[in-house]
Amino acid sequence: ALLLAPLNLSAKHIAALSDLMNLQRENSLNSASPAQVWEAIQKLLSSVAKNAPIIVRLDNAHHMPTRERDDLVQLIRGTRDYPILFLINHVGEPPIKYTGGITHIKLGAFSRPLQRRHIRNLLRVISVSEQLWLLISNTCEGNPLYIREMVRHLQQHDKIKIVNDRAELVDDSDYTMPESLAAFIATRIDALDPAARGMLQLAAVIGDRFSGKLISAAAGLPDATLILSTLANHALIMREANGENRWTFKSSLVRDATIRGMLLAQIRDCHILIAGAISQLPDTKALAYQEAHAHHCAGGENYLAAARSGYAAAKSLMQKQQF
């Protein structure tokens, strides 16, 4: 209350803000209603903006319930006469419908030149080795935040050396996913509905690349394109450019984070489903399918079937003089 005193807020507004911040209030039996909290926020922002322009940032607005989105629109309308800039980030369609004074800015991935420039600026070097560039470009999806966290992680683990203003990757290093990035990506995965999350987990067990035909069979669906498209809309996977029904993960970090979030029993069950799907495909005797079938049978703890498929794959290699 002492901090808010210069803003000339009423007692009810201070009480509502205290409830919002979970502060203890004396002689309080009833908590403020949501409407009272939004009214107090509007009064607070208006009072602050009388003295100087302010910026209000709201993250992940797509997670807001419909009622709160309507309240946010009312807040923007109620403060439109004050110098307040609202920055609202979201995924997908705009979370609020407001016709006055809103500018939509679509933020995409950094281009390859911008990624290189960003890495050079972070490391304060003139050039970056190709090995370091490939590691970051193949994992960070062109996301500047991901790039920053990956560079910080590599530096903290002494994986980058700088020689004559050139950043190079330390050879023969074992790279793990930064915990900060794992948390960022896990949040995106947790936002999925159960069907989409299960499909993503199945895809992660298949590998970096997978066919729509195989994953549909493994999931027990005639066609999984609709769910795969949902995952693509969340920037977790993408369709390969050749136009066929083949897909790949947006980055290796997404696949790694998906695997990390699965129980061992879930991974085993996915292997079992995938092995069963491979055995039903018409070209199951192809070498690549024999190798994949052996791998997934082993992952599903069906070691006898894994040995049979492994033997068949080895025999095929010997016949092709590739062994």
User: What summary fits the major beta sheet?
Assistant: 3 strands, mixed
Hey, roughly how much beta strand do the residues contain? 5-15%
* Multimerization state: single chain
Shape: globular
* Percent helix: 40-55%
> Mean of residue pLDDT?
85
User: Terminal Cα separation, in Å?
Assistant: 78 Å
Secondary structure class reads mainly alpha
Radius of gyration: 26 Å
Q: Ranges with pLDDT <50 over ≥5 residues? A: none
**Arrangement of strands in the largest sheet:** 3-5-4
Total helix count?
14
Please write the string of helix (H) and strand (E) elements: HHEHEHEHHEEHHEHHEEHHHH
Number of strands: 8
Structural commentary:
The chain is mainly alpha-helical. The chain has helices spanning 11-20, 34-49, 66-78, 112-123, 130-139, 144-156, 179-190, 194-206, 212-219, 225-233, 252-260, 264-280, 287-299, 303-319; strands spanning 54-58, 84-88, 127-128, 160-163, 166-169, 209-211, 237-239, 246-249. The protein is built from 14 helices and eight strands. The N and C termini lie far apart (78 Å).
Summed up, what is this model?
The protein is built from 14 helices and eight strands. The chain has helices spanning 11-20, 34-49, 66-78, 112-123, 130-139, 144-156, 179-190, 194-206, 212-219, 225-233, 252-260, 264-280, 287-299, 303-319; strands at 54-58, 84-88, 127-128, 160-163, 166-169, 209-211, 237-239, 246-249.
Highlighted features:
about 325 residues, mainly alpha, three-stranded antiparallel β-sheet, 8 strands, globular
Task: Tell me the layout of helices and strands.
Blueprint (H helix, E strand, L loop, with lengths): L10 H10 L13 H16 L4 E5 L7 H13 L5 E5 L23 H12 L3 E2 L1 H10 L4 H13 L3 E4 L2 E4 L9 H12 L3 H13 L2 E3 H8 L5 H9 L3 E3 L6 E4 L2 H9 L3 H17 L6 H13 L3 H17 L4
